[in-house]
């Protein structure tokens, strides 16, 4: 879609785009180019000499069993977070869509976690599950469950998934509720007259009509779990225990800033950029036409 | 709903109340913890409020944890506010200007600019941290508000949002303005900007939260304590070596850190929802 009426001015449009383009070039394109460039070099730790090594950094990274572990960890983490967050929010949205009284109150009560920083979400959940003085940890221990996320990798993973999903429920809830309210009442009424009960109506009518929203949310949640959960992992587990929660994004930070492996970290950055690019294309190409809200 | 079944309505309310309770439980725990002496929450679980709440909040706000070299939370909150408002205002200004240029002018390289802006979508700060850090340090922006805000200011989504909105503004308005002799700048300020008011408000809510909640970036580029933002400051309270963890103060700080963005969401609920739904389009 294009405007028919436009202004003509030789220099003004350039002045208008200049601030954004300048910032983008300096802080986005240039560093991304640097990452690409660095990913083909090996630098000594003091930065005194560099050597061009073709794809060796990528070979090292992709051949590293720790990187493979990190891929698996990221996949488990993002899928678990996505399904937990989607499941809970769908249940709550369906219920909120049913009630006539108090729907607005429930909505506010469920919206606010969106505003909590991932790092703060990490602090809150870490404390509740802390083996020494956490209220949930104590309950688990009382039930005879041996809880210590500082030692047990699976428990650490479960904890970061819960904290990450908790934060995302409000977002999904909002979109699911909007999706549910778009479904024509007449459809539901018609099937009720045909004798379909609430559960049957949900699975045969509501759920299929909601699936574009669900798919959109799935992509958004995967992107969130990939890139926006750094704070949660950095606060709760620092990638541990023994690398059990070392996701791809955390690993870039850890190898680059803590391990000072510049070439390797740059190669990992480039791989991540390709993943974001793919997810962005899916989001734009595929979803823009399918989802309506 | 279609049929009137009291039991189902009851069940819906029950599930919603359980959901709200589970979602809110961490806040309850934080509030309770922040109301006790440090020793009372060190190895025991406190189920109910103590009497130290005001003392603890005053203590973190005014003095922070000096023993581990931290600054008063008051200072961190001011830093966070400046950073959040800077990112919010910066993103809105540069996005609305570039969207105006792309929609209302035909000029060489228009689409090139458009795609350069689009690329920022694919480059979240998390994936380009090392080289971006280097750029900021080369520019001498470490430990400055410029360094905290500028690299996060470019925003493809905000630009698209304004572009989308400008495209719905009727051509007749532009024609009328031109006939009355208004140039592009006058048109922008007297017609387009007032029309965009609700979009700007919606976006402002989302961007304020985004800016306030930044963690990794301030963690990397600030080394001086008095540049700490409150969200990244949490990290210093949790990973302390050789000191007793003071959970009561940590929880008080966490509550202070999340209060402003939550207040914004609750007060600006309508704009928040609009901003969220639209910025994802």
Automatic annotation (TrEMBL), chain A:
What biological process terms from GO does the record include? transmembrane transport
GO CC entries: plasma membrane
Subunit info here reads: The complex is composed of two ATP-binding proteins (UgpC), two transmembrane proteins (UgpA and UgpE) and a solute-binding protein (UgpB).
Q: Where in the cell is it found?
A: Cell inner membrane; Cell membrane
Q: What is the lineage of its organism?
A: Bacteria, Pseudomonadati, Pseudomonadota, Alphaproteobacteria, Rhodospirillales
Q: Which InterPro entries match?
A: MetI-like (IPR000515), MetI-like_sf (IPR035906), UgpAE/MalFG_permease (IPR050809)
Annotated ABC transmembrane type-1 domain ranges read 71-283
Acetylation: present as a keyword of the record?
no
* Keyword set, alphabetical order: Cell inner membrane, Cell membrane, Membrane, Transmembrane, Transmembrane helix, Transport
Instruction: Summarize the protein's role.
Output: Part of the ABC transporter complex UgpBAEC involved in sn-glycerol-3-phosphate (G3P) import. Probably responsible for the translocation of the substrate across the membrane.
List the PROSITE patterns hit by this protein, alphabetically.
Answer: ABC_TM1
Which parts form a coiled-coil structure per UniProt? Answer: none
Tell me what topology the record assigns in the membrane.
Multi-pass membrane protein
Q: Does the keyword ATP-binding apply?
A: no
Pfam families linked to this entry:
BPD_transp_1
Bilayer-crossing regions: 12-30, 71-96, 108-129, 149-166, 173-193, 205-227, 232-253, 265-287
Q: Which family does it belong to?
A: Belongs to the binding-protein-dependent transport system permease family.
Give the protein name, as stated in the record. sn-glycerol-3-phosphate transport system permease protein UgpA
TrEMBL record, chain B:
Instruction: List where in the cell it is found.
Output: Cell inner membrane; Cell membrane
Q: How does it assemble?
A: The complex is composed of two ATP-binding proteins (UgpC), two transmembrane proteins (UgpA and UgpE) and a solute-binding protein (UgpB).
Q: What does this protein do?
A: Part of the ABC transporter complex UgpBAEC involved in sn-glycerol-3-phosphate (G3P) import. Probably responsible for the translocation of the substrate across the membrane.
Ranges of residues in domain ABC transmembrane type-1: 77-268
In Swiss-Prot or TrEMBL terms, this protein is called sn-glycerol-3-phosphate transport system permease protein UgpE
Which spans are transmembrane here? 7-31, 82-105, 112-133, 145-166, 187-210, 247-268
The answer to whether keyword Cell membrane applies is: yes
**Gene encoding this polypeptide?**
ugpE
Q: What is its main location?
A: membrane
Q: Which Pfam families match?
A: BPD_transp_1 (PF00528)
UniProt cross-references to NCBIfam families, sorted A to Z:
PRK10973.1
A biological process (GO) of this protein is: transmembrane transport
Print the keywords alphabetically: Cell inner membrane, Cell membrane, Membrane, Transmembrane, Transmembrane helix, Transport
Note the CDD domains from the entry.
TM_PBP2 (cd06261)
- Family in the record: Belongs to the binding-protein-dependent transport system permease family.
User: How does the entry describe its membrane topology?
Assistant: Multi-pass membrane protein
């Amino acid at each position: 879609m294009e405007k028919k009426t436009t202004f003509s001015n030789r220099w003004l449009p350039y002045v208008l785009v200049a601030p954004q383009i300048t910032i983008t070039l300096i802080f986005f394109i240039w560093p991304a180019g640097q990452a690409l460039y660095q990913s083909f070099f090996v630098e000594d730790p003091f930065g005194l000499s560099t050597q061009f090594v073709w794809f060796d950094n990528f070979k090292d990274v992709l051949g590293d069993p720790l990187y493979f572990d990190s891929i698996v960890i990221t996949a488990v983490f993002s899928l678990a977070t996505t399904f937990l967050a989607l499941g809970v929010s769908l249940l709550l949205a369906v219920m909120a869509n049913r009630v006539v009284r108090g729907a607005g109150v429930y909505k506010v009560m469920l919206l606010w976690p969106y505003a909590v920083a991932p790092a703060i979400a990490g602090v809150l959940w870490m404390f509740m599950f802390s083996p020494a003085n956490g209220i949930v940890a104590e309950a688990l221990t009382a039930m005879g469950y041996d809880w210590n996320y500082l030692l047990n990798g699976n428990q650490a993973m479960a904890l970061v998934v819960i904290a990450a999903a908790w934060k995302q429920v409000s977002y999904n809830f909002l979109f699911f509720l909007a999706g549910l309210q778009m479904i024509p009442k007449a459809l539901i009424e018609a099937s009720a007259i045909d004798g379909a009960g609430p559960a049957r109506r949900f699975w045969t009518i509501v759920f299929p009509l909601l699936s574009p929203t669900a798919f959109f949310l799935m992509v958004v949640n995967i992107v969130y779990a990939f890139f926006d959960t750094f704070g949660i992992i950095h606060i709760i587990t620092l990638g541990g225990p023994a690398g059990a929660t070392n996701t791809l994004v955390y690993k870039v930070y850890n190898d680059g800033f803590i391990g000072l492996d510049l070439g390797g970290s740059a190669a990992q950055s480039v791989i991540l950029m390709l993943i974001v690019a793919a997810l962005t294309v899916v989001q734009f190409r595929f979803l823009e036409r399918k989802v309506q809200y | 709903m279609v049929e009137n079944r009291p039991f189902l309505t009851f069940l819906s309310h029950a599930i919603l109340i359980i959901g709200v309770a589970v979602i809110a439980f961490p806040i309850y725990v934080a509030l309770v913890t922040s109301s006790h002496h440090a020793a009372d929450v060190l190895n025991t679980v406190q189920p109910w409020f103590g009497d130290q709440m005001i003392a603890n909040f005053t203590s973190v706000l005014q003095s922070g944890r000096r023993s581990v070299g931290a600054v008063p939370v008051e200072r961190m909150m001011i830093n966070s506010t400046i950073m959040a408002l800077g990112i919010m205002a910066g993103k809105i200004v540069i996005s609305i200007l570039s969207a105006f240029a792309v929609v209302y002018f035909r000029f060489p390289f228009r689409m090139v600019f458009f795609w350069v802006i689009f690329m920022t979508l694919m480059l979240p700060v998390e994936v380009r941290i090392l080289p971006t850090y280097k750029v900021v340090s080369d520019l001498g922006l470490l430990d400055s508000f410029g360094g905290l805000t500028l690299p996060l200011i470019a925003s493809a989504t905000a630009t698209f949002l304004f572009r989308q909105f400008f495209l719905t503004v009727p051509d007749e308005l532009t024609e009328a303005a031109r006939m009355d002799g208004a140039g592009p700048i006058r048109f922008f300020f007297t017609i387009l900007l007032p029309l965009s008011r609700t979009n700007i408000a919606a976006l402002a809510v989302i961007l304020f939260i985004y800016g306030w909640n930044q963690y990794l970036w301030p963690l990397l580029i600030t080394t001086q304590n008095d540049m700490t933002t409150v969200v990244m400051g949490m990290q210093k309270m949790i990973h302390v070596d050789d000191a007793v963890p003071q959970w009561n103060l940590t929880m008080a700080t966490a509550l202070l850190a999340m209060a402003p963005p939550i207040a914004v969401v609750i007060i600006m609920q309508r704009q928040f929802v609009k901003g969220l739904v639209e910025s994802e389009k």
